[in-house]
Each structure stands twice: as C-alpha cells, then as structure tokens.
C-alpha cells in the first residue's frame, strides 16, 4: 500500500508543479484550457518517471533471494517518506479546498499564509523525506530505490519544463505565436 500511496503523491506533486510552471506565463484571460493541458503534460511526465520506479521495484524484488524481507524494508522506509509527504499534502490540499470554497479574502489568506510558504518549503522537504528513508532502511536496495524515486520525480518536473521551453513556450503545436508564453 505504501508504494501506491507514494506514487499517488508523486503524481499529484508533478501535476501541480506543471500548473505552477504554467501559472502567470500566458497573456490569455481565459486560461482554464491552458492550465488543464499543462497539468496533463506534468501528469504524463510523472507517469513516465513512476513507470521506471515501478520497473526498478519489480526488478529488485525479482533478483533478491528474499523478496519479502526486501519489500518489508522498502515499506518501512517508504512509510517514513509517506508520513512526511502525506502530512505536507494534507495541509496543501486542505488549504486548496478552503481556497476553492472561499471568497477573495479567504483565497488571499490561503495563498499568502499557507500555499505560498509551503511551495517554498517543498524543495527542502523532498531531501528530508529521502534522508528519513535512508535512516530507516537496512538494505542498499531500499536506499537506491528511494534515491531513484526522488531523482526521477524531481526530474519529471524539470523534463516538463524543458519540453515547454523547447516548444518556445507554446503549450500545443499550432498555438499562435502571440499567445506563447514569454
């Protein structure tokens, strides 16, 4: 269950990172479709990264003599990551829920007091989760998979940004030049 929950958190993280990458970079007034496409692109990059992670997990479990012991070690280390990242995600999703339901004053309060600062903390929180997993892990396979997962999910965000930059800021082929992001 832990790998599945960590995967869902990683997908949500990469999807919201793609939204953050697209936010404020387009002169359109109606940006709903633009943001949806950006989030879909981030989600696709996240799926690719997670596919590699799940393949590595299955490969490691197939190669060792005692896959149950390795899986327990991975689940224990992943539990520490899940506790930290899950707590962060709960606060962010709660603030987003209040933001969606509230008026302009409440939206401003959520953005300034919770969502903005937590966005700044996110990049520091990721290595802390990795350090917790490494501290808890007994096996090198577990430490290696945790490192691979953090690197690939972090790279998915960078990969999506590179794809957008390669398109010269256009979100889809054929987008008019005057609508491209700066």
Description of the molecule:
By secondary structure, this protein is mainly α. It has one domain. Helices cover 81% and strands 0% of the residues. The chain has five helices and no strands. It has helices at residues 2-22, 32-63, 67-101, 104-136, 140-166. Helix 1 packs parallel to helix 5, helix 3 (67-101) packs across helix 5 (140-166) and helix 4 (104-136) packs antiparallel against helix 5.
Task: Summarize the model shown.
By secondary structure, the chain is mainly α.
Walk me through the topology.
Elements: H1 2-22, H2 32-63, H3 67-101, H4 104-136, H5 140-166
Helix pairs in contact: 1-2, 1-3, 1-5, 2-3, 2-5, 3-4, 3-5, 4-5
From the alpha-carbon coordinates, what is the Rg to the nearest angstrom?
A: 18 Å
- By DSSP (H or I, 4+ residues per run), the number of helices equals 5
Give the total of beta strands. Answer: 0
Largest sheet: none
* Average predicted local confidence, pLDDT: 83
Q: How widely separated are the two ends?
A: 42 Å
Order of helices and strands: HHHHH
Spell out the key features of this protein.
single chain; 182 residues; mainly alpha; 5 helices; 0% strand; globular
